């Protein structure tokens, strides 16, 4: 947490993950985190460490991602520079977007603000929502970076039936990459399908997702939808929460982090404390 000499800053951003090796910094690889932190370091002229709401894998995109960082109040208050009528929040967005535009232009800062007391981008959320886009016909070249074309015909009714009523508390061990000492128990709040012309979109919301969970659920549903597996196969995997060779990941590029939901300001601190108590401290929410 921050003290009175610092501000905790919340930033909402979007990115095209095509050219990046995911969110988290990795030596020698281009990542969203490193690019954003380099931009912040350029602006503040000192290293800035960020905390993210949910790490995304290589090639995964975000329409609305959330991060926070702590910065000395003096540095924050200098941001407007000679534009005294301009709020620091506006200056932050303008300056950081200006720096990021010099890279690939694939990352865009939407908003910046001083976070309410108790806010933690990682531990305060009550839900994270993703969508996965699947083209049913030939892939539109203009949307190829964020839409997956499944080559086999899909039975949409069969897919809807497979996930009907599946929401709730489950152990998703058969749909996750395990991490030592970390739980794979999650509450799936939504799993539904919508269709718009030649594209179907899978919508998934949970309190958090463990590593590979979204892409593994989508991969399993696709196998039921194209007839590779019998109806009920996805549900059967839920009853045996152990990762095995039948776990197939849907390609990363069809996945988009849609939004992160936080409770009311007065509940942020309590929610963060509750989440920390339930999860292993080394466990970061993933896709």
Automatic annotation (TrEMBL):
GO biological process: tRNA pseudouridine synthesis
Family assignment from sequence similarity: Belongs to the tRNA pseudouridine synthase TruA family.
E.C. designation(s): 5.4.99.12
Entry-linked Pfam families: PseudoU_synth_1 (PF01416)
Positions with a binding annotation for substrate: 130
Catalysed conversion reaction: uridine(38/39/40) in tRNA = pseudouridine(38/39/40) in tRNA
Domain Pseudouridine synthase I TruA alpha/beta stretches: 167-263
Superkingdom of origin: Bacteria
Active site: 57
InterPro entries registered for this protein in UniProt: PsdUridine_synth_cat_dom_sf, PsdUridine_synth_TruA, PsdUridine_synth_TruA_a/b_dom, PsdUridine_synth_TruA_C, TruA/RsuA/RluB/E/F_N
Annotated gene: truA
Lineage per the UniProt record: Bacteria, Bacillati, Actinomycetota, Actinomycetes, Micrococcales
Molecular function per GO: RNA binding; tRNA pseudouridine(38-40) synthase activity
Name listed for the protein in its UniProt record: tRNA pseudouridine synthase A
NCBIfam families: hisT_truA
Organism whose genome encodes this protein: Enteractinococcus helveticum
């Amino acid at each position: 947490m921050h003290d009175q000499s610092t501000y905790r800053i919340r930033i909402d951003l979007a990115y095209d993950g095509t050219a990046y090796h995911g969110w988290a910094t990795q030596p020698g690889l281009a990542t969203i985190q490193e690019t954003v932190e380099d931009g912040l370091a350029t602006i503040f002229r000192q290293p800035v460490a960020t905390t993210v709401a949910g790490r995304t894998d290589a090639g995964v995109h975000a329409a609305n991602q959330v991060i926070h960082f702590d910065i000395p109040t003096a540095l924050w208050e200098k941001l407007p520079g000679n534009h005294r009528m301009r709020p620091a929040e506006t200056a932050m967005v303008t300056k950081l977007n200006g720096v990021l535009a010099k890279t690939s232009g694939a990352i865009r800062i939407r908003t910046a603000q001083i976070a309410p007391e108790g806010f933690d981008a990682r531990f305060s959320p009550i839900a994270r929502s993703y969508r996965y886009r699947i083209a049913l016909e030939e892939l539109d070249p203009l949307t190829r970076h964020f839409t997956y074309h499944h080559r086999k015909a899909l039975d949409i009714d069969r897919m809807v039936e497979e996930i009907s009523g599946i929401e709730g508390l489950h152990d998703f061990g058969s749909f996750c990459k395990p991490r030592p000492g970390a739980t794979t128990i999650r509450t799936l709040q939504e799993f539904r399908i919508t269709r718009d012309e030649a594209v179907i979109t899978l919508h998934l919301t949970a309190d958090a997702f463990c590593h590979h969970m979204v892409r593994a659920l989508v991969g399993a549903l696709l196998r039921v939808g194209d007839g590779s597996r019998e109806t009920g196969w996805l549900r059967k995997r839920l009853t045996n929460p152990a990762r095995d060779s039948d776990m197939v990941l849907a390609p990363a590029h069809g996945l988009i982090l849609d939004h992160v939901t936080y409770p009311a300001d007065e509940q942020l601190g309590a929610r963060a404390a509750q989440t920390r108590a339930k999860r292993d401290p080394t466990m970061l929410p993933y896709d």
